[in-house]
């Protein structure tokens, strides 16, 4: 797996100009927004870079070549999740540094506030990877993007229907979320992390099964 991680890292480092621009953009935009912006922005950029490695692997029959080497399909699928967690985790850490710098030089944003908010973005980028990685592995890059958009649209529709259903019972989705916000923040973050870990495990299992049956 270490060889695959090095390969993906080298692919990302080939985009040095893009990475520098994204970091500078994140820094300056963060100075004009609240501290939570940079966490979401940089973790999304990290997930986008992971998708780029999948595109590179499909380009010019690279994937069939990889499997002529001593690399198992299961290892390849798992590596994408490990690499995604490393890249998004790095983006999260950089975002934390930017947020703390903002707290020191900007009034109205405290270090304590940023430290309280930042952990919730860890389960969020875990869920993001759980959705973004499987579809390109199962359907290919182009078809996978279309299927992913359809699934995300279906999720939005489900949320809308749930809100309408709760409305018929004299409630709303907002009220339900407000009741959850009454929980202690630490417990809420721990619950979110547990759910994200479960979804990530299910997603990884689906990707491993898809890679084992994938025709190259």
Largest sheet: none
Share of residues in helices:
over 70%
Question: From the alpha-carbon coordinates, what is the Rg to the nearest angstrom?
Answer: 19 Å
| Spatial gap, N to C terminus | 20 Å
- What do the pLDDT scores average to? 77
DSSP E strands, number: 0
Number of helical stretches of at least 4 residues: 11
What global shape is seen? globular
Percent of sequence in beta strands: under 5%
Q: Unreliable runs, pLDDT <50, ≥5 residues?
A: none
* H/E topology pattern: HHHHHHHHHHH
Q: Specify the structural class.
A: mainly alpha
List strands and helices in order, with pairings.
Elements: H1 2-13, H2 16-30, H3 36-58, H4 62-66, H5 73-105, H6 111-117, H7 121-132, H8 134-139, H9 141-168, H10 173-181, H11 185-213
Helix pairs in contact: 1-5, 2-3, 3-5, 3-7, 5-7, 5-11, 7-11
Any overview of this molecule?
The two termini are 20 Å apart. With 216 residues, this protein is an all-alpha fold. The model has no long low-confidence stretch (mean pLDDT 77). It has helices spanning 2-13, 16-30, 36-58, 62-66, 73-105, 111-117, 121-132, 134-139, 141-168, 173-181, 185-213. 83% of the residues lie in helices and 0% in strands.
Provide the descriptors you would attach to this structure in a database record.
216 residues; mainly alpha
């Amino acid at each position: 797996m270490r060889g695959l991680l090095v390969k993906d890292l080298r692919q990302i480092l080939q985009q040095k100009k893009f990475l520098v621009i994204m970091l500078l953009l994140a820094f300056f935009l963060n100075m004009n927004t609240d501290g939570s912006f940079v966490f979401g922005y940089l973790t999304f950029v990290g997930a986008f870079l992971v998708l780029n490695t999948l595109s590179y692997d499909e380009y010019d029959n690279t994937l069939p070549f990889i499997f002529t080497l001593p690399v198992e399909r299961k290892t390849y699928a798992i590596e994408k999740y490990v690499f995604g967690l490393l890249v998004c985790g790095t983006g999260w850490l950089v975002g934390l540094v930017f947020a703390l710098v903002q707290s020191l030089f900007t009034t109205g944003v405290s270090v304590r506030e940023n430290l309280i908010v930042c952990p919730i973005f860890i389960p969020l980028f875990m869920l993001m990877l759980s959705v973004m990685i499987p579809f390109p592995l199962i359907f290919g890059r182009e078809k996978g993007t279309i299927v992913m958009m359809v699934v995300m649209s279906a999720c939005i529709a489900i949320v809308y229907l749930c809100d309408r259903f709760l409305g018929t019972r004299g409630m709303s989705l907002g009220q339900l979320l407000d009741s959850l916000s009454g929980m202690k923040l630490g417990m809420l973050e721990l619950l979110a992390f547990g759910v994200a870990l479960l979804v990530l495990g299910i997603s990884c299992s689906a990707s491993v099964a898809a890679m084992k049956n994938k025709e190259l």
